[in-house]
Design brief:
Layout (H helix, E strand, L loop, with lengths): L10 E4 L2 E4 L2 E11 L2 E10 L6 E12 L2 H6 L2 H10 L4 E10 L4 E14 L8 E11 L2 E10 L5 E9 L7 E12 L2 H4 L4 H7 L2 E14 L9 E15 L2 E14 L3 E11 L2 E10 L10 E11 L2 H7 L15 E10 L2
Length: about 325
């Protein structure tokens, strides 16, 4: 048996179908799809022009595979490509048709699923929670990613769809205890990755992401992310001076990183930085940026002078200041 509106084939069906008067009823029909067991209930009441049809299909576990994808509507298929789901889940599908209306609803309880959002591809693993698919609307109900370490990612929100229109997203993502490592920087827009990959940082981050319709219409959806990171150590390849007690507060979009505050220490010295890093057109080139930098009590020792020797070729090696200094400056590039 296969529903024309959700063409997911059910095979090896066993059970009873009861005809009584102007009704047809089937309770507890057991069937399979590629080894997964499903149970079907349903019936037809009052055969004729005013008949009512109802159907329910449940399964404790099925795979998110190509057969599920092929059964989806065009709008749902676009979302499938956006999030690349994998793994398994339990389903509860209901369909009802009366002379006045037709409704269908699919509830998916994630068991051990995975997903990757195309425009911020940080892997979501061991997902639990509930997806509800109804006419014109998809609801994410407490979707949580679980990891072997303290990382945690939670998704909630809705996606509304209409025939011939781009889906509208209203999704919130809260991520906690996320290591600031290659997995996080690789998820950033390509034009910003090159900058962040110059940092060697022992830190964890909390990220709040909002996904919403792109107001320009150039992309199917857009996002903003607020990042707060705390770390014990940082080393920047462009100026390899070890820093400690690192704190970062920044807003991220596909266009730019707006650093609200970056603070760190080196010994008794303090460093503060703020400004913007912009997305350029060439991902291989250094991104445009404009950063305000302030230092207080920064020690001019041998480590400092070795780190800056390439930037001060005009200053003879015999000329080296010592002691602690205060300084302010601005770093601008490609603006």
């Amino acid at each position: 048996i296969q529903d024309a509106r959700f063409p997911y084939a059910l095979e090896a069906m066993q059970g009873e179908i009861v005809f009584k008067g102007r009704t047809l009823t089937f309770e507890g029909l057991h069937c399979r799809h590629n080894g997964w067991e499903l149970i079907v209930q349903g019936g037809v009441d009052d055969f004729g022009p005013d008949q009512q049809i109802w159907l329910r299909v449940v399964s404790g576990k099925i795979a998110f595979d190509e057969d599920v994808y092929n059964a989806l509507s065009p709008a749902a298929k676009r979302l499938w490509f956006a999030f690349s789901p994998s793994g398994t889940g339990a389903i509860d599908y209901t369909y009802r048709r009366t002379p006045q209306a037709r409704t269908q609803r699919l509830v998916i309880d994630l068991i051990d699923a995975g997903a990757v959002y195309a425009h911020f591809p940080y892997p979501l693993e061991r997902l639990t929670g509930r997806l509800i698919l109804e006419a014109g609307r998809i609801t994410l109900d407490n979707i949580v990613a679980h990891y072997a370490d303290p990382r945690r990612v939670q998704l909630t929100g809705t996606i509304t769809t209409a025939a011939g229109q781009t889906p509208e997203f209203a999704i919130r993502i809260r991520a906690e205890q996320i290591p600031v490592d290659a997995r996080l920087t690789d998820a950033m827009p390509p034009t910003q990755q090159a900058f962040f990959k110059q940092f060697d940082m022992d830190a964890v981050a909390a990220v709040d992401v909002a996904i919403f319709p792109d107001p320009t219409g150039e992309r199917p959806f857009d996002y903003t992310a607020h990042l707060q990171a705390v770390g014990s150590r940082l080393l920047y390849a462009g100026l390899p001076i070890p820093l400690e007690n690192v704190r970062l507060d920044a807003d991220i979009t596909h266009q730019a990183v707006d650093i609200k505050s970056f603070t760190a220490s080196r010994g008794s010295g303090k460093i503060h930085l703020s400004g913007q890093i912009y997305g350029g057109t060439d991902a291989a080139a250094a991104p445009p940026l404009c950063l305000a930098i302030e230092a207080s009590g920064l020690e001019l020792d041998a480590v400092f002078w070795k780190a800056v020797e390439k930037q001060i070729k005009h200053l003879p090696p015999s000329v080296r200041l010592g002691g602690a200094v205060d300084a302010k400056g601005r770093w601008s590039r490609h603006l």
